[in-house]
RNA sequence: GCUGAGGUAGCCUAGUCCGGCAAGGCGCCAGCCUUGAAAGCUGGUGGCGGCGACGCCGCGGGAGUUCAAAUCUCCCCCUCAGCGCCA
């Protein structure tokens, strides 16, 4: 949620910024939000005037009573107030609610360094690393390789849970855990505190950390409970200090979330036919930071550098794109994607999403900065970035490290986590 | 799931029975005092609206009764403790 003060005092700036997102719906929303806010303030004035008169008369009645004077006349006027106040107050409350809802639906203001563009085809490459291999169409797809090596059961998973689910088996499970541990160790070394968060959140907190459309398209709802399965540990990590005042001397707070993530993926691209690239559940190590506002651009680069380091150490070629104005999500002010090279597909595909949410998420969560005993008004910034999503990283590894004989070489940096194992090949016996 | 106790400002607490401007402490800020500091003393310390004087709101949430609700009535939510169940 953006600061309502900006809407009132610098509407031209806000409008100009919203225009960059290239979605006319936002401009409509902006006008409506402004108008409703003005109506609300006018109505609030009316209600306050009535309340003021009521309070005056109430006090007069109390005073008169205590002095034994008659209250009949004052009471006659006082009795007329509740009816009109009731009507005005109801209108005021409903205008307030409408104005709030409109304000909450407005996206974050974009950072000036976000490139102007209409959709993901106009994202700007800002870095590349490694040598993408050209001409490797003879490779197996990651799902074919998983099945050939006896490392996954897709058909059986689809039968019992539906499309978008999988069984992983054997050494690839250890490889998955190795990836998580490798990423986590790297982050701990860099000052992050590992956190295993709740995998479910209540609706209230959840509405504060993401936009409403996600409830329709992304999150799984638990039947009979006010609980949603998390789509990413970013969400419970952001909600960790909901309604609290953060000691500004302790910022930045660096957290490394470790969780399974659940996504319905309704609409959009849906789930992939087979494999683990786009699925309903996956493990992820997530970076999350609460920061002072002035530090967030620097920390955004730090998150990006950490994510790049993960893929550099895995020796997977990648590039980084600065996501353009038409493609940045609602909550982020700026976003980088890291895209790994998939040699069989001959394409870069998204493996990391790294966002600076500025004060948008924290304001919704009613988080402020300050010192003990001295709450401030400043809203801290929140940032998040994938360190490694194992589904995507495994898919990249399965293509990148595939050998001509059909075996899979284990990335060097993961070998210590697998007892020094260097290769995964097809099992000789039945499994 | 059952029973009980709770939810009041950044934090801790009183007020609730019996309706009448939310009291006190801690912390924090400022001033006085002091060579400096501490202590002490004085004042301030939430949200919203208003250019402002100022006003309104705020006691978990909502509805009701009333001129007037932290306080009375009804509904709901949450937390903690004990018990039950459980990897």
Write up this protein.
The chain folds into 2 domains: 4-105, Serine-tRNA synthetase, tRNA binding domain (Helix Hairpins), CATH 1.10.287; 120-424, Bira Bifunctional Protein, Domain 2 (BirA Bifunctional Protein, domain 2, 2-Layer Sandwich), CATH 3.30.930. The strands form 5 sheets. An 8-stranded mixed sheet has the order 1-10-11-12-15-9-8-4. A 3-stranded mixed sheet has the order 7-13-14, with no helix packed on it. Strands 2-3 form a two-stranded antiparallel sheet. The mean pLDDT is 91. It is elongated, with a radius of gyration of 27 Å. The chain has 13 helices and 17 strands. The protein is an alpha+beta fold and 431 residues long. It is 41% helix and 19% strand. The chain binds one RNA strand of 87 nucleotides through helix 3, helix 4, strand 13 and strand 14.
Strand order of the largest sheet: 1-10-11-12-15-9-8-4
Provide the CATH top-level class of the largest domain. Answer: Alpha Beta
The helix count comes to 13
The proportion of residues in beta strands is 15-25%
Largest sheet: 8 strands, mixed
What integer value in Å does the Rg equal?
Answer: 27 Å
- Domain count: 2
Give the low-pLDDT segments.
none
Structural class category: alpha+beta
Oligomeric state of the chains present here: single chain
Question: Can you give keywords for this protein?
Answer:
431 residues; single chain; 41% helix; alpha+beta; RNA-binding; 13 helices; BirA Bifunctional Protein, domain 2; elongated; Helix Hairpins; 2 domains
């Amino acid at each position: 949620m953006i600061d309502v003060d900006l809407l009132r005092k610098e509407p031209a700036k806000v409008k100009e910024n919203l225009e960059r997102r290239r979605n006319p719906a936002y401009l409509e929303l902006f006008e409506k939000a402004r108008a409703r806010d003005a109506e609300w303030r006018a109505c609030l004035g009316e209600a306050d005037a009535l309340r003021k008169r009521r309070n005056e008369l109430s006090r007069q009645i109390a005073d008169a009573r205590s002095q034994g004077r008659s209250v009949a006349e004052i009471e006659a006027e006082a009795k007329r107030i509740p009816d009109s106040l009731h009507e005005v107050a109801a209108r005021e409350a409903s205008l307030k609610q409408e104005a709030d809802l409109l304000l909450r639906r407005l996206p974050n203001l974009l950072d000036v360094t976000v490139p102007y563009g209409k959709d993901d085809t106009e994202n700007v490459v800002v870095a590349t690393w490694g040598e993408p291999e050209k001409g490797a169409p003879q490779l197996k797809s990651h799902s074919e390789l998983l099945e050939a090596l006896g490392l996954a059961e897709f058909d059986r998973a689809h039968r019992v849970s539906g499309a978008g689910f999988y069984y992983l088996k054997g050494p690839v499970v250890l490889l998955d855990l190795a990836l998580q541990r490798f990423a986590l160790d790297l982050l701990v070394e860099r000052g992050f505190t590992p956190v295993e968060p709740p995998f479910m959140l209540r609706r209230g907190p959840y509405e504060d950390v993401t936009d409403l459309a996600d409830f329709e398209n992304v999150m799984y709802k638990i039947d009979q409970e006010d609980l949603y399965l998390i789509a990413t540990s970013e969400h419970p990590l952001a909600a960790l200090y909901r309604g609290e005042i953060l000691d500004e001397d302790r910022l930045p707070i660096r957290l490394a979330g470790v969780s399974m993530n659940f996504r319905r993926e309704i609409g959009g691209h849906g789930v992939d036919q087979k494999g683990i690239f786009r699925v309903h559940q996956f493990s992820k190590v997530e970076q999350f930071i609460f920061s002072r506002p002035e530090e967030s651009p620097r920390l955004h680069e730090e998150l990006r550098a950490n994510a790049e380091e993960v893929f550099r150490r895995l020796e997977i070629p990648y590039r980084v794109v600065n996501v353009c104005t038409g493609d940045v999500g609602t909550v982020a002010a700026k976003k980088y994607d890291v895209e790994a090279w998939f040699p069989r597909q001959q394409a870069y595909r998204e493996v990391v999403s790294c966002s600076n949410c500025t004060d948008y998420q924290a304001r919704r969560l009613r988080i402020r900065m300050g010192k003990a005993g001295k709450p401030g008004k400043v809203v801290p910034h929140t940032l998040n970035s994938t360190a490694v999503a194992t589904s995507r990283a495994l898919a990249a590894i399965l293509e990148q490290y595939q050998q001509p004989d059909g075996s899979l070489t284990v990335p060097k940096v993961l070998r210590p986590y697998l007892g020094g194992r260097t290769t995964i090949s097809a099992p000789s016996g039945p499994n």
